[in-house]
Structures are given as C-alpha cells and as structure tokens.
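hiii so my PI (J.) wants the whole complex modelled not just the main chain, which honestly fair. so below is everything: two entries, each one labled with what it is. i double checked the lines twice but i was tired so who knows lol
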Amino acid sequence: MVRIGLDIGSTTVKCVVLDENNKIIYEIYERHYSQITEKISDLLQRVKNQVKDMDNAVIAMSGSAGMGIADACGIDFIQEVYATRVAAKTFIPDTDVVIELGGEDAKILFLSGGMEVRMNGSCAGGTGAFIDQMATLLNVPIEQLNELAEKHEKTYTIASRCGVFAKTDIQPLLNQGAKKTDIAASIFMAVVNQTIAGLAQGREIKGNIVYLGGPLTFIPQLRAGFDKALKTKGICPENSLYYVAMGAALCAEKGADFDSVIRKIEVYRGTGNFAFNKPLFRTQAELDEFRQRHSKATVKKGNLKNFNGNVFIGIDAGSTTVKAVAISEDNTLLYSEYLSNSGNPVPIVKNFLEHIYEINPDIKITSSAVTGYGEEIIKNAFSIDYGIVETVAHLTAAKSFMPDVEFVIDIGGQDIKCFKIRGGVIDNIFLNEACSSGCGSFLQTFANALGYSSEEFSKLGLLAKQPVDLGSRCTVFMNSSVKQAQKDGATIEDISAGLCLSVVKNALYKVIRVASPRELGKKIVVQGGTFLNDAVLRAFEQEMGTDVIRPEISGLMGAYGAALFAKSKSSADSKSTVLTPKQLSEFVHEIKSINCGGCSNNCRLTVNTFSDGRKFIAGNRCEKPVTKKSPDESFNIYQYKLQLLKSYTPKQGKRGKIGIPLGLNMFELLPFWYTFLTKLGFEVITSPFSNRKLYLHGQQTIPSDTVCFPAKLMHGHVQWLLDNGITNIFYPCMSYNFDEDLGDNHYNCPVVAYYPEVIYSYAKDIQGVKLFHEFVGIHRPKDFPKKIYEQLKNYFDGISLKEVKAAAKAAYTEYESYLQKIRDYGDDIIKRAEEQGKQIIVLAGRPYHADPEINHGIDKLITSFDVALISEDVVSCKVHEKIHTDVLNQWTYHSRMYAAAEYVSKHPNMNLVQLVSFGCGVDAITTDEVRAILEHHGKIYTQIKIDEITNLGAVKIRLRSLLATIK
Amino acid sequence: MAELIYDKTGRLLFTREMKEEYTILLPMMAKIHFHILKNVFVHYGYKVRLLETEGPEIAQVGLKYVHNDTCYPALLVIGQFIQALQSGKYDVNKTALMITQTGGGCRASNYIHLLRKALVKAGFEQVPVISLNLSGLEKNSGFQLTLPMIRRLAAGLIYGDMLMSLDNQVKPYELNKGDSAALIAEWTQKLTDILAGGHGFRRKEIAKILDEIAEDYSKIPIQKTPRIKVGIVGEIYVKYSSLGNNNLEQFLYEQGCEVNMPGMMGFMMFKIDNRLEDYKLYGGSKLKYIAVEKLLNYLKELEQMVVNSQIKYGFTPITKYEHTKSLVKGVVGYGSKMGEGWLLTGEMLELVESGFENIVCTQPFGCLPNHINGKGMIRQIKQKHSKANIVAIDYDPGAPRVNQENRIKLMLAVAKEELSNTQPDKKPVTVKVKAVAKSED
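here's the output for the full assembly
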C-alpha cells in the first residue's frame, strides 16, 4: 500500500508518495503563487498519472493553507506540527528538538523529556516571508543573501518581530552605507533570535537538533546562525523539505479517490463566497471621467538641454526610491528621475548629477536641497546646499498646487506621512511607525508574489466587479486573508482592488485614525508614489467621500518641494556648492563600520569617507563621535536622573546581599526600596542600566512575546542578579502606586503591578533563590510597616517591627527627597532655558523610560537640537488639582502625563513629546487623551513609539518637524 | 421629550424621565446568561434590547471609532453599539446604552469613556451611557443598582451558569441532536417570564428552579463516548462572546470535543473577593470588609445550590470558587486582581484537575493582565501537571480565523493522541447515563 501526503504551505506545495517501507518514491516541491486549488488538482493528476500501483493508496493533507480545502474535498487534515512530529519520530527517532521554519510559520518541537510543541502566535516575524521581504529590500535573490552572509564581518541589531520593523531598521543602515554582507548576516541573526525568544519561552533547546523547512534547508548561513546561538551542531536531514508531507502520509488512513477529490476541488473553487465592497469604477466612462479630472493638476515642463537660466536641484532620497528634479526660476520642471534605490542612494544620485551635466554641460545650478531618509549622507557626499525635513519639503510642494491646502497625505514605499496645516504651518503630523501596512511596498510585495509588476497589478483592479473586503490589518496577516479569498473564488482583479482599498483603510484608520473626512478638511492634496496608482487614489476618494488633488508629479513631490525650498533660499548671485562635473568624476565613497564606545549607548557608527577626504559619520545619537567632545548634558534631565540613581551604591550590612532588578516601577522606587532595605541591614545590589547584552541574556525566559519591551527587560535584570551570585531578590507586586492626587485612582498598569509573578514563576525553580514577590501597599504609609513586617518574617529571620517602622520612615523620606531633587533640577533647567531663550521639550513617558536601552538615546538626540529637556514629573507636580479627562484617570504614571500636558499647554515655551512603548495597551487610551488636551489648547502633539529597536530616522523627522513649526 | 441634563464634569445623565421614554441597548456577551439577565431590568420597568447582531462589520465599525490599539472587546462592544445606532432601527433621540464598568486597574474600566468618545466621533452625543458597576462609579437618577436588583441579577447569573454547564455536559453526547438546545430555549422562555414577573430570586425559588432544570436535563438520552475534553478560559469577553472568539465553542463542538467553560459567577465572586483581599494585604475599613464578606457568602450559598442540584441529578458539579482559589496558592498571589487576575490561572488549574487537560486560553491581543496570569503562568501549570495541553490564542481584528483554528487543531491533535493512548480500545464505549458524581464537602 502506498501513502500520499500533501503539504499545502503558505508559499509552496509539497507532495510525497511513500511505499510500504516508508521510502519516498515520488516527490514534488513547487511554489503555488497562491493558485492553491489549481495546484492541488494539478498535483493529484500528476501523481495519478506518474505513480504506479495507486489502487490502494491512502491520502492525507497538511499545511496551513490546506485546512479548509481538506475538509471540502473529503481528505483527512493533519495539523502540520503534529505531522512533523510523527515524521521526526519515525525517521529520526533520537531527535530531541525540531526547529522548523516555513513561509509564515515558525515552530519548535520538544520531543524528548516532556513533549511540547510551540508555534508562532500572532506574529510572522522570523519566518520565510520575512526573509523574502528582506531579500527584496536588499534587491538580491535569497541564494545570494546566503553568499553575502558568509562574508560578513559584524552584525547589526535588527528587529525580526515583524518585517515592518526590520525594514525600518535596515533602511537607515543602508542609507548610512552599511555593508550588505553585514546586513545579510544580521537578518539571519534576527530570525534566530526571534525564534528562540518567541518560542523557547524558558525551555532550553539542547540535544539532537533537527532543522526542517524551506529557509533552513536552503540557507546554510541560517543554520549556522542557530548553531552559533544554541552552541550546538544541528542536522538538516535528507528530505528536510518534506517532513510535513511525510508526516501526513504516515497519518493517512483514508483511501484516495482521485477523481472525486479533483471534482470536489473544482466545485470548491467556484463558491465565490467572500465579502466584497462596491466596485471602484462601475464603467469605463466613470474611469475616464476620473482620469480627466485628475489630469488637471499639472506642472509646466521644459527641456533641460540648452536651458540657460538658473537651475535648482531637489533630491528626495526616500526609503525605497530616490527622486530627483531640476527646476527653473518659474518652477518649470526641466528634468526628473524616479529610481529604486536598491539599498544605496549614493551611486544613484551620482548618476543623476552625471546625467544633468551630460544633458546640459553649461548648466547653472544656483542652489540645491535634499530631503528624505538619505538626507544626511547625500548632503555630505555631494555638497548639497540644504537639507530639509521631509514634511516641510512636501508641504512646500503641495502649496504650489493648492496654496490654501488643509491636509497633505503622502504614501510612499513604506512611509505614510500626513499632516494638517493651520495658518500655513504644519499643525499636526501623523507618521506610521509601527506599521507599514498602509504603504506602497505592501502592494508591491503582493504583486510580486502573484507574479505581476506592481503597475500591471494595480491596473487589474480598476474595473473589478467585487473588490474583496480585506479590512484593515497587518501586512503579514493580509497574506492569509488573500489566500483565503482566493480559495473562496475571488478573482485576481477583485484581490487587486481589495488590496488597494486595504492600503487606504490602513492609512486612514490605523495611522491617521480618522472617523470622517470632516476631520481632515476639504482641501486635500495626496502625493507619494503610491497615489500614482489610480486604484488607490479612487479607493481613497471613495472611503473619504470627497474629491482630492493628486498632482501629476505625485511621486516627485518631495524632490520638487526640496527644489522649491532651495530656490526660496537663493539669491540672484548664489552659486550652488554641489559637486562640479570634475569633482564628480573623481568621486570616491568608502564605508567603514566601527563601534563608538563613547558612552553606554555604544552606537554602531558607519564612517563614510569621500574623495576629498571628507568624512560623514552615521548611526550616532549624539555629537560625541563627530566633535570628539562630550555632549552638553546640563539641559538633559534624563541624564540627571541616571546620575542620581547611580548614587545608591551598596553598603555592607549584617543581613547580607539582596538584589533589586532595576526596571519598570523599581526604577523610580529604587530610592525607596534601597533605603528601606539598607536600613534593615541588607547590602542592596542593583542591576545596572539595561543594555543589549543584558536583554539577550534574559530573553529565553520571556513567556509572552507581545508584552512591552520594558517588561521583557526585567528578565535580563533578574538574570544579571543571578549571574552575579545574588540569591535574595527583592521585587514586590504593587497593584497601587503612590497617590499623587492627580487622578481618580492610583494604580500601576497590570504589567507593572504583577510582573514579579512572572519572574517568580521561573525563578522559583532555581536552587537557593529567594524571591520576595509579595503584594505590598506603599500607598498606605500607616499600614505599610505592619503589613510588610508580616511578609518579611516569612523570608528573613530576626527582623523586628520596630526596625521595619524606622526603615519605612526613612524610605518615605528618601523617596520624597529624590523626587524633590529632580523637581529642583528641572526647575533649574527651565530657568536657564528661559534665560537663554531655549525651547523646552517635556519628554513624557514612564519613569523607566529613562533607561538608555529603553529610550535608545532619544533624550540626547533631542538635546542635540539645542533645546532643553525635562520629564513629565517636573511639571506634573505643579498642577494641584485633578485634571478633567474624558477617560478614567486611574494610573499614577499616566495621571502625571495628563497633568504635564495640561501644564505644557499653558506655557508657550514648552512642548510635549510623548514616549510610548510598543504594545502598551494603556497607551492606546493615554495617547488620544494627551493629544486631546494639547490640541484643545492649540499645541502640537508629538508621539514617539519605542520598542526593542527604534528607528531614530522617524524620530528625527518628528522632532525636526515639531521644531520647524515652533521656531 | 426628556431634557438632556449633564453633571458638572459634562457627563450626560440618564434621568428618571428617560427611564420612561428611552430604550436601553445592552451589548451581547454570553448568550445564555444575557438573555436571562435582561429580564431583571424589564421587571424594574426599563425598556431594554439585547443586541444580537453579528458579523465582521461590527469590528470594522469599531476600528473606525475606537483607537485601533485598544483591546478587542472594546472594539467589538463599541462597534456593536454604534452599528445599532446607525442602523436606523432605534430612535437615536430615545435610546440609551448600558455597559459594565469594573473599576479595576485594567483598561476595561475605560470602555465606557472610549464609548462616549466614539459616540461623539460618530455624531451621537445625545445618547446617554449608563455604567453598570458595583463600585459606586457614575450615578444616574434614572438608574440605580439596588440591593434587590443585585439579588435578581445574581439569580440570573446562577441560572445562566447552570444551563451552560449542563448544556456543555450533555450536548456532545445527546442521542437526538438538538435536545439540549431545545431545553435552553424552553428554559430561557420560562426564566424570562419568572424574572420579568419579579420572581425567582429568593433562595427557595432558586433551589427549586435549579432542581427542575437539572431534572429536565437528566431526561435527555445520551450515549457517553470518549471525547476530547477541552476547557475554555480567558479574558471574560472573548471567553464567552462568540463574536469575540470566532464561535470557539461551536468550533470545538464540531471537532467532537466536550467543552467546559467555567461559569460567570466565579468571576463575580472573584471581583467581590478582591475587596477582601485588598483589605488583608493593605489594610482599610473593617466595616466595609464585613459588608462585602456578607455579599460574597450569599453568592457562595447560591453556588452551593447549583452544586447540590447537579449532584442530585447525576451531573458533574461545577467547581466551587473557594476550591479554585485554593489551587492558586503558591502559584500566583491573591493580590493579582486586575482583569481576570489569579482566577484565570485558577480556572486552568481547576480544569486540569477535573480532567479537562486540554485548554484554550483566550485573550485579546495585547491583554495586559493575561501576559501575567494567562501566558505567564502556563509554564508553572505544565510543571505541576505534565499532561496539561494549553494553547494561548490571541484575538484581534487582524488575526485571521484560519491561523487561530490551525493552532487549536495542533492542541487537538496532541489531545487526540493522548485520548487514544488512554483508550486502547477505539470502539465507542457506552457508559451509563448517570455519570460520575464527584461530591464535595
């Protein structure tokens, strides 16, 4: 009897036929380009025709994309992880752990010593799809990615949680000139870390390790990455691609009736049972009318050749493309280029300049400006006159089409930038930070996956009858939804239109968060390459219910705006500093990466050296590596806080050592607990401020991959204490924080309140470790000593109530004095800033956002713009009453933010920037409320999302846009 | 028409006048329970409508009016309300909304505020929102939660728990498909009449009704075959709401499982008990403690009645709150009270102990308390019980159902293997109708 196993994965189908001895006698491995049902019937036909003795064959199906189909055509479905397990047990019985990566799935199976199976939950970071995306971004085929990685010298830290984040990590690296070889290796490292951190969940991966699935089979460097991280040598067996299919075959029980199955699949294909929206255009006439309307927003065009007037150059070195224009005095577009940046904008801009010099050797370049992600490197490389922030460039361009524009939305390759305009200046900025699902690269990825170019693909949808309703969701999950729709009979046209609608919905509801067009104003200019796509533009108008203006040069607006800006800065006799043809011909660009080592941030610097010996350093967060001087920290309260905390050094005591993990609420409460425990005679050892290494040491024990980064760091802190021989650890649970009379209640957020329970649940198994994780109530100073005395008794002998009372008293006093010091210093900064006419930024977050690994040096970045920096607690204490909020104001740390926002909005020299941890559920509430408070008083709200890794490029855009407005 | 009156913070009040004129919309959560509970409000003279709408559009409406990073239950509840107001079925000038508010440290206490913000965004500023809570938050002249009302609501909860528990025990094994569903419909109607008529809340009445329900269920002919036993725990909304969990209970039933969902009374008792624990941990007013303890004891009495009736008629009794609580000792502290708190961990332990080793732990994506008490505690539970087979499933508008079901199927595949290991003889085993009756105390 032969056994047939099918594995319908997210990108490929696999089919095996096993004989009686479980030997493979037939196998297929092919990409399905989402034509799943067609592919299955094709496969079955081939098996039927090419394999002999199929009379008694049994069949089963597995794979994430096969689930619904299996039911529909009467084939048994075997869950794929389970199938893997069956196959591994049969073919490699002494396997301890299987690591399998697929298109969208990542799995770890522990087979020996308590079977456990782990599968990535709601995140497809660190899978084949992720590697594909990265290869696309680097513009190399996967095989070459492997070759590149072989030659790497160092690795960078890249977030692999989501392809979206990784892109934002990689792009700046590319723009700053980091080597592709190093980036390739870093991508694999990211996958390895994601898999281990996300799936091991505290269980050690050891013994005989087997690697399965496409990525691990085809990419030796990825296996090497796992080997290195796990300090072992895993094997990638023969047929490693087919384990799921073989497992399905082994589980098969039902006879294979090919004809009936094929017939049922045909029927299944035709159900057409999917949700859809109204068509973008019902008729060709509608489409023509639409095109007619939009063809009016044009610019004058001229010829660069033989042009003898003044020329202004504008360059937009964007995330995925480089746009460059040359315009004349009267804004005539003389020449333009729109090119994919292939990971390095420098040669492209060089080509552009060569082209214009070639076309018009006598060109008179009066002035030039550059904007976009690559602004700094291009400005330095080619001696461009001005660099401007993207938002300003786009606004300048939009105004030339509609002087009284109220709202500009720019959707580019992976950025959405939009802003409201009030009184001619930018009033409110929305940028996508955590999510690129509303962007052009999203459409491009899909078009490519389905075998189309993005232009062809988007045209398909224009006249689609039933655009699939895909809702608004993450790119990764859109994959599954699209596949489902295809299985349900949606045509490629319907899907194309559906995806365009989703791009718009994501942009509107996820990034801008509007409910109705009224909020955006009537005068809207749309731009960016993605709006060149008629289907997206139409979807936007439909969803907003209003007509908008799309300039003909929609894709060039950044560059055009930069050129206009350059023009506005020039005078009749200016001459641009841009490289001359001769200088250009001698242009050399060398890249070296080094570690700064100037401070604990330990930035990875990319040093670009150009022909005449000029240097440009990128990747730095402060001026130290450039100026070789320590940055001025006298206006930076975040640094002051760190200094203060460092002063709580261990003092030997009769009761021995006790460790405090310095994170979450313990960060601000260190003065309290340090004093309390020191007075009780403990030598208090504090874990250091976080760094990358500390984080990685603890990541194996993180049980929830979606909890916020500050919480994840706690694992590293506790691990540090354990590694340093500290066996008594003090980390109590606290439902309540101090009541500062600023809100309706004074809770900690659930994660802060109860994270000790999570720590306890793994630390309690470590021999000899005593972890104090009791619930304590410091908010009731009267009851506190009695209550904690009772609890301490169970942990430590011989502590008397009297001692505890005295210690508590000292602790409360010290905590107050610590807060007072910060307030005093903050007041001093305010005073000095006012004397020197500096703007003041209130960087509002939680106290633990002062940790350098959490804020990624954003504090230093802000002060590098020559502004003063204080924290929310400096001003919240100046508000003496409960702020009226439209939400329940019940968390101590968050109450401070509302109060700070209220205070800031009444002080013209202050602006608030809110730090938000990615994944923080509470901030979904606070961000809207802080924004409302500020906007109510006419202030601009600026938000910075921070995570494990933060894209400082986006942060800079925000800050510069804010500063451009308030100055 | 009723005048719109605001309190000094600008909150639109639900006035006595409105009580006469307005229809109050209630969001759906646990179907069996809510159909019964609404009748308590009917008895007190309110016009109420329970929203039974379903479908993916609700989440889409929610996404439009609520911050997209907010928890999924808020998106759904608010989406369901706004969709109803936009549907044209209700006079928006004579409609009020009711929503629960726990007052705890989790985001759920803010749903009501997010709802009000969404109403403004959607242009329904004139629609008043009533907070249903035990913490004395937000008073309204037109709606008061009185002690008699609480007693009636508690009775409603108990009936709901009873029906749900028996349905779960009987439905997978019934010989005539639909028997159990028919009984639920029948009893929902009976209880509607009883509660709307102002009866069915005294101890004696409750005991009698519970007995009758159990007796009716005991008459359904069943055949016990070995089935995969799956427990459902999680954040309360996605645990019970089929809208929130993509019809999880039905899915598991179709996969041939016997499902066990710990009842809602446990959650109520947990919330009340938290006040006692707070007192023990941090201190406070002894007087309040005594009053709250009295309420908790009353609910314990009702719980005992369910247990009694179930044992009497041969069913597996629900696990009592105190027992669940005792299981948590040494695993997680009683101070962990936000959201479902330690109860979530407790319910997993209780399920494993009573033979439901396979568990789906449901939570909205990014649910803060569940990072701790759900996902954070699975490791400990597995260490205690090596056979525990737990899968944590995140629900949010972006998570496709296929992926969720795929992960659940993995859990089921392991469960199935375990089941066939313990049942070497694969033929269906007929067990006597009167199954094991585990008695306690």
